[in-house]
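#onboarding

Welcome to the new folks! Below is a worked example of what a typical request in this channel looks like: someone posts a single protein sequence, and someone else replies with the predicted structure as tokens. Don't worry about understanding the tokens yet, we'll cover that in week two.

Example request:
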Amino acid sequence: MNLANWITLLRILLIPFFITAIVYYDPSQTYFKWIAFSFFVAACITDAIDGLIARVRKEKTTLGSFLDPFADKLLILAAFLCVNLSPNYTRTLPLWVLIIIVSREFLLVSGLLILFFSQNKIIIEPNLLGKFTTVVQMITAGALLGEFSWAPYPAYLAAFLTILSGMTYIIREARRLNHGSPAH
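Example response:
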């Protein structure tokens, strides 16, 4: 296992600490909100670092191509679900945005499983739109965690990009399934 994969694992390991801080946050203990925010930002930074290290050191691996998006999905879903379920956060995602984001992730994971069982392999090829969507989702989650007044604005962009990137992935993978070869 290489350095980039260890950093990705660190991102996954930060998630329970991040969730714990959200659970303990209440208006009388606002420092827990900032602890959760700090864990989230640290986890987002590891996302940039692991990718950079993998590219610079030419250490892209099959494990890393699976772990990295998996860690991103766990982090983003944990953030959105925990903030929306917490009674103490004043800024939350509109329910329809939450449903869009959770549904996309469910569809993508289901699609990966279908590909795995039909072709005995998982090929994860993120595209630029998917990466940009993840960044906007992370900004949105961070804004909600910090309860910043501007938090609703990136949420709407995140919803739009989530739909667009989800459709792009579904079309690409449907073509791959129909033709039995990678679709580009």
